Amino acid sequence: MSSSTVSPSAPENSAGQMRKNGASGSDPKEASIKELLFGNVRSYGIYLALILVIIIFQILTGGRLLFPNNVVALFQQNAYVLITAIGMLMVIIGTHIDLSVGSVVAFIGGVGAYAMKNWGMNWILAVAFMLLIGLVIGAWHGFWVAYVGVPAFVTTLGGMLIFRGLATVVAGESIPLQSRPFRAIAKDYLPNIFGFWGGLDGLTIVVGLVAIVLVAVSQIRKRRKAISAGLTAEPMGWVILKCAIAVLAIGFATYLFASSGNSTQGGIPIVLVIIGLLIGIYWFVLNRTVFGRDIYAVGGNRKAAMLSGIDTRKVDFKIFLNMGLLTGIAAIITLSRLASATAATGQEFEMDAIAACFIGGAAVAGGVGTIPGAMVGALIMGVLNQGLSIMGADAAIVKTIKGLVVIAAVAYDLISKRKKA
């Protein structure tokens, strides 16, 4: 455990946002490009790593990785990584771990499928029922960790065995689903309300343009706030460079999604909207709420957090309650995509989520990590899954590569800390 509390936005803030040393009232200065680059090696490095992985697999797959429909499949098939990585990040920041994610996904999916097929439950009620089960399981884990004091590793290891066994009892060999609306959650797209523009989905283009404008406005406002608050501001050239990179990235992604699907349906997949909403909500929770600050405080220094009046047991309980909710969402999307529940569903889901967090900059000792970093880490895991799948790689090779990536990410984190010390 680290010895001091780390600000949740530390990896996202540039070196140019630190307060200027000197007399109060003097004009704020601009940080140099060198300070911005070397002060944020970890933050920018993860994005460069994602780009490098994409380029490598684009070459190895003969250009097939970035086919529009393959990009959509990347998010549809790896939505579980992106969603569970959000909850796992909060667990890891709080100095815990959750090994039960895959088993819980299998159990919740089995119960939901059983309810829809054998009880005739409406798919909307089934979704609410599955979320409720996720919350109950999260409360179960949270109770043992927070109020009994059983280490999270042991608690969730037991949960992994318990819920995998229950999934086998509930789902048996397989429970197929026929509900078209439920299956649409993971397979369909947003309605094409603007029609097709030159063969491209109009709604996707509009959303892409709005995203570009929002990014540009947010960067400019960020710089103006730094100047007005007397902070060292980023050079305007640096801001323009970041906006230009964002425009290129968003524009390319918009083109890929707008040209996906078929002649009647395509554009933005529903599952991408769900992921986007979750990212926005949890970014706000971690960076703008008391609960989010408490998680970082507990992870940074649990004893100091207790002395400052934070109820660490309540924080731990909420962390696992939230993990249960997000696991329930992952179970819904996984069941929707597979259209059947089996006891084997969710194998190694927790490993992908943990790997995504560590790749994205979360510290092994807790107290450090960001939502953007975890999402980039999840995308790297998704590209690995998708790229190796397109190449037809053996499952053993996939696991080997994932393992090496995780070890490298954690080793980099530890080596960086030693150098700073």
UniProtKB/TrEMBL annotation:
Membrane topology according to the record: Multi-pass membrane protein
One GO CC term on file: plasma membrane
Listed InterPro entries: ABC_transp_permease
Residues making up the signal peptide according to the UniProt record: none
Region Disordered, residue ranges: 1-28
Top-rank lineage group of the source organism: Bacteria
Pfam hit, one: BPD_transp_2
Subcellular location: Cell membrane
Keywords, ordered alphabetically: Cell inner membrane, Cell membrane, Membrane, Sugar transport, Transmembrane, Transmembrane helix, Transport
Transmembrane segments: 44-67, 74-93, 99-116, 123-144, 150-172, 193-217, 237-258, 270-286, 319-339, 351-384, 396-415
Gene Ontology molecular function, alphabetical: transmembrane transporter activity
Main location: membrane
Extent of Polar residues compositional bias: 1-16
NCBIfam families reported in the protein's UniProt record: GguB
Biological function: Part of the binding-protein-dependent transport system for D-xylose. Probably responsible for the translocation of the substrate across the membrane.
Name of this chain's protein: Xylose transport system permease protein XylH
